[in-house]
Amino acid sequence: MGQVKKSRPRSTVVTLKIVAQHVGLTAGTVSAVLNDSPSARAIPQETKKRIHAAAKELDYRPNFFARTLRNKRTYTIGVIAEEIGDSYGSLVISGIEEYLRETDYFFLTVVHRHNPELLNRYSQLLVRRGVEGFITVDMQLSEALSLPTVAVPGHKNFPGVTNIVLDHQHAARAALQHLLELGHKDIAFLKGQPFSSDSEYRWGAICRVAEELKIEIKPELTVQIDIDDPTPQLGYPFAKQLLERKVPFTALFAYNDISALGAIRAFHEAGLRVPQDISVIGFDDIQGVAFTNPSLTTVRQPLVHMGRLAAQTLVARIEGAKDYPAEIPIEPELVVRQSTARAPQAPNVKP
Q1: Alpha-carbon span 17 to 201, nearest angstrom
Q2: Is 249 in a helix, a strand, or coil?
Q3: Hey, which bits of 14-75 come out as E strands?
Q4: Are residues 86 and 29 both part of a single domain?
Q5: What is the pLDDT of residues 273-317, one digit of tens each?
């Protein structure tokens, strides 16, 4: 019988020395290749491939502190989010974390709550903590930050900033065309909060598309959300305002999914059925809206993908990519579920 090679205990920390022994080379050679040192240029490509393959096979993880001291790097980015745990930001941050975990980067998170003073203070604090770049989430930038930045979403062009931008024109057309095809003509709208970074651009797109489709946007069927609340309470009182105005409508296009859920609650309390009496469309496709009653028709933003793309773009900048996009467009998708249906013969919201 042949000799059985003993497997390495799972608890053993794989060091450069272990990788070097595995490939029969010196630890210095292995270190030069894995750390992409200038001296590695003289090492044959085939040898480099063997070293990288061995490191992957053995699940070698470089010592973070040694790597930091050697390269004078922190491998850390700063994430400046609107809030921890809100339905929009949490999915974006999930995508950021997913990508950074694969690349052995860390991130520090602070909360700006749409306060420009906090943005300035926290960005300086993160710089002192050694971050190498920023990702901002739902924040309207008024100027470029001091390090490479990716804004999710971003709308203003600044040097050093990449904006990840949803195609709001496409989103508005998909939603409004869907309602038109269902026979809806009297459509109500919940406008986003003025401080939300997408609000102005989304509303502008809705107005342009409505004009193209010959949909009248009535002021009495438009309500401005003006509170900051990460729960369905965001839409509840404003949907009640719409009902109190006694102006007939058969559909509601809400600023986001959270406000749409609050609006549905207000409609149910008023004895109105969704979608038989009023159809409702949200925006974002956050977790859970496929399982509400009724399940929510919405414009999907690929939020996890947007976070992942933001992290990938920023890491490439930090690692030396000189060319970076000023803008990365994102295509939305209409997801039709149970909250929209054909318009009733006569509006059930009566004067």
Answers
A1: 56
A2: coil
A3: none
A4: no
A5: 999 999 999 999 999 999 999 999 999 999 999 999 999 999 999
d(CA 299, CA 220): 24
Same domain assignment for residues 227 and 255: yes
Separation of alpha carbons 66 and 249, rounded Å:
64
Contact (CB, 8 A) for 194 and 336:
no
* 283 close to 153: Cβ distance less than 8 angstroms: no
Cα separation of 167 and 187, whole Å?
22
> Is 232 a member of any domain?
yes
- pLDDT tens by residue, 212-238: 999 999 999 999 999 888 889 999 999
Residue 343's closest CA among 224, 178, 104?
178
Domain around 143: 74-166+303-330
Distances (CA, A) of 124 to 51, 131, 238, 309, 321: 40, 10, 37, 24, 24
Contact 233, 262 (CB under 8 A): yes
Strand partners, 251: 187, 279
CATH number at residue 26: 1.10.260.40
Minimum mean pLDDT among 42-56, 113-127, 136-150, 176-190: which range? 113-127
263 in a domain, yes or no?
yes
Q: Are residues 156 and 213 in the same domain?
A: no
Mean pLDDT of 15-34: 86
